[in-house]
Amino acid sequence: MTDDVTTRISRAIGDLMRVAGSDRVHAARQRATGIDLSRTELRFLAVVDEQGPMSVTELGAVLHLSQPTASRTLRRLEDEGLVRRGPDSTDARVARFEITLDGCKVRTHFEAYMAIQMDGSLADMTPDRRRHLADLLEELVAGTHGGEPR
User: Coil, strand, or helix at residue 99?
Assistant: First the structure.
């Protein structure tokens, strides 16, 4: 049974997800940064930056995308010079993609702008409340990884 607090939290998270994922917000971020990449392309850059070189199939699986969508996305990022294709050390038939220095710069610039936006949203909170919110959100994320109600 859900109580009023649980409902409030669920609604607030839903609202945050809708705003953060909206086309309007993403377009404004693109204009502000001068970076013309889709959310999917930015997620690809983040994954290969954080996890290292990956194949098309691995990236598609991590991001829950079909192989053709992953291939198209990587092709565009490669054409823009943001990722580079390299050989797989164990299977010559497989290409692995890694982020380039330009890709790192693009990702860093876009994420820095998002951090500035977040700072603006949190401006009225004291540093202690910000830390507490961060702790609570990390705890919530850790609790949802199991997927089953407790």
Answer: strand
